[in-house]
Amino acid sequence: MKIPMPNAVNGHLLNRAVLVLNANYSPMMICTAKRAICMQILNKVDILANYKEKVSSPSIKINLPSVIKVRDFIRYDNLSVDLNRKNIISRDGGVCQYCGSIALPLTIDHVLPKGRGGQDSWDNLVAACKPCNQKKGYRTPEEAGMHLKRKPKRPNRLHYFYKYVNNQQQEWRPYLFMEPFKIN
Length: 184
Prior knowledge:
Blueprint: E1 17-21, E2 27-32, H1 33-41, E3 45-56, E4 61-70, H2 85-91, E5 106-110, E6 125-129, H3 130-136, H4 141-144, H5 157-162
Parallel strand pairs: 1-4
Antiparallel strand pairs: 1-2, 3-4, 5-6
């Protein structure tokens, strides 16, 4: 079987988000539709739900997958999220945790400064605009007279998945514990 190649009309469809479930149906990650189709053709996944659209090549048409399940169980810590700049800003919604500004670029601030024993951890790092980060400086928020909008905490992968769920991803909701499965 030939792998379908995108035509000009279907090219953007191959970047559509697809929910990947482990063999035990626990959510693992999100991949592109292009990757999901490749795994489908290689017989590595089962398709559990499709989008309405199809992608085609000169020889075949394939439903665009929305939810896939890997066939073989993969040992995977599916609730942890890597501690990095991108994920801190995502956790904080792209908003400065001191003033609420969405001014870009955002920086990462240590709530308790590193030089005073502050660690690189989920509960000590927040997104901050440059002016707030400079104003706070080497002080704690209390010392600087600044208050956090939200107390920083470790997110889990489900929060990451929730950001992708919109009207096109209604099939994802039961797998992400957002609503019960409907029994036909």
